[in-house]
Amino acid sequence: MKTHFQILIIGGGTAGITLAAQLKLKDASLDIGLIEPSDKHYYQPAWTLVGAGTYDFKDTERKEADYIPKGVTWIQDKATAIEPDQNCVGTKNSGKFTYDFLIPVPGLFMAPELLPGLTEILDKGVVCSIYTNPEHTWDVLQKFKGGNAVFTQPTTPIKCGGAPQKIMYLAEDYFRKKGIRDQTNVLYATPGTIIFGVPDFAKTLNKIIHDRDIIFKPFYAPEKIDSEKQEITFKYSKPGESNCTIMEGNPLGEELIGALEIKVHYDMLHLAPPQTAPKFVQESKLSIQEGPGKGWIDVDIHTMQHKRFPNVFSLGDVAHLPTAKTGAAIRKQAPVLVENLLSLIKTGTVGHKSYEGYSSCPIVTRYGRMVLAEFKYDNVRDSDPLISKFVDTTKEQYSMWLLKKYGLPFMYWNLMLRGKA
Q1: How far apart are CA 163 and CA 399, in angstroms?
Q2: Where does the FAD/NAD(P)-binding domain lie (predicted)?
């Protein structure tokens, strides 16, 4: 069995397959190995729609083997350790592999254990998540009869930061269609400071929240869950605040415990579980060792090259980049990494291609409507010149819903994973 590769990629998700395909299209002679244990590949952006009953889960699943680019060696195993000083990657069952150049893009891992009480109840009863079991989420919505519908997210970075509010908007719309909205409090509680970081899109979303009577609570960091009582406790995390005020007789029945903890009863609870980089990444020298980016891969935010190991590049969810962790970000990051890596291989010098932080978040705001939020580093709006010529993407649009439901999945399977978009 071959154990040395010119380029070794860890991860066969969106990032790994896209990169392998683009590299092979640019230079078919490249010797590439790809480590990925799963035999299934999922189009996860559609899981929001699955959770709202408007997309079939089986249509988000394909065989991994059908997307491994021709000429790439698939090592169907789990990476367990990276030793960048030795140019070596350890695996669970296949031993060690060495490389000239390494691209670790394994995505991130769900870590429900970081929120006390969550592991035991996730995807059971009235607790659900489109991140882990979107079909159960749809089941919960259909069985919901009214009361407190609580939507929240953790203090860790997460895949697609907008997803927890997308499913909240769809659920709220579903409750209206079902005729139970009057018996329902819809709460969106987030550790964040605002509804969305880019002002143009925040303006639209704030109006939607106001017009549809959604209760928005910023600075609410989920702290623990009591499944017996169906209660979730939040810590009020506003900087500089030493106490929190809760009005008596509030519609949610919130209860203040001590100075900064708030207890809320839920009749259904949807949340994004806490998420982290894989353990083998956190424990490797490739990750940032201390500070805000601890555990994430330490790359230059423009070139995608590792700051300390020049023969290592990374992007996507596992890289420490100050932008959203989305497939749209990977689509713009990948050509930068590919060009800069190929330049390094051929000339010994990294190329000049630069990533400016582009990401997009297609925010579904109800059935048949979507806002396409596009932005780059520092929360600067960054619209696609073609789309923005015809459509105001800051407004709810039916055309953008069609893009989300039909256009983007087609582009993903047929263009992006083939290295052509």
Answers
A1: 19
A2: 5-107
306 neighbors 312 (Cβ within 8 angstroms): yes
Instruction: For residue 295, give Cα distances in angstroms to 91, 130, 191, 282, 299.
Output: 20, 25, 20, 4, 12
Q: Which is catalytic among the residues 88, 128, 160, 244?
A: 160
Reply yes or no on whether 361 is catalytic: yes
Distance, in Å, from the CA atom of 113 to the CA atom of 279, rounded to the nearest integer, reads 14
396 close to 370: Cβ distance less than 8 angstroms: yes
**211 C-beta neighbours (distance < 10 Å), count:** 8
Rounded to the nearest 10°, the torsion over CA 47, 167, 316, 339 is: 80
pLDDT tens for 143-186 read 999 999 999 999 999 999 999 999 999 999 999 999 999 999 99
Q: Is 244 an annotated catalytic residue? A: no
Catalytic residue among 88, 128, 244, 361: 361
Lowest model confidence (mean pLDDT) among 79-88, 167-176, 255-264: 255-264
Question: Residue 335, exposed/middle/buried by CB under 10 A (0-12, 13-18, 19+)?
Answer: middle
383-411 tens-digit pLDDT: 776 677 778 888 999 999 999 999 999 99
Domain with CATH 3.50.50.60 in the chain: 4-108+277-350, 110-274
What does DSSP say about strands 369-376 and 359-366: parallel, antiparallel, or unpaired?
antiparallel
pTM over cut 0.90: yes
Architecture field, domain 4-108+277-350: 3-Layer(bba) Sandwich (3.50)
Amino acid residing at 25: L
Beta strands in 11-146 (DSSP E): 32-35, 40-42, 61-63, 73-75, 79-83, 88-91, 96-104, 109-110, 127-128
Parallel, antiparallel, or unpaired for β 215-217 and 4-10? unpaired
CA distance 307 to 84: 12
Tokens 């609570």, residue located: 217
Question: What pLDDT is recorded for position 386?
Answer: 67
- Give tens-digit pLDDT for 37-59: 999 999 999 999 999 999 999 99
Sequence letter at residue 75: I
> Counting beta carbons within 10 angstroms of the beta carbon of residue 229, is it exposed (0 to 12), middle (13 to 18) or buried (19 or more)?
exposed
What tokens were used for 56? 């079939």
297 Cβ neighbours under 8 A, 6+ residues apart:
104, 277, 281, 286, 287, 288, 306, 314, 318, 319, 320
Give the residue ranges of DSSP H helices in 194-307.
199-211, 279-282
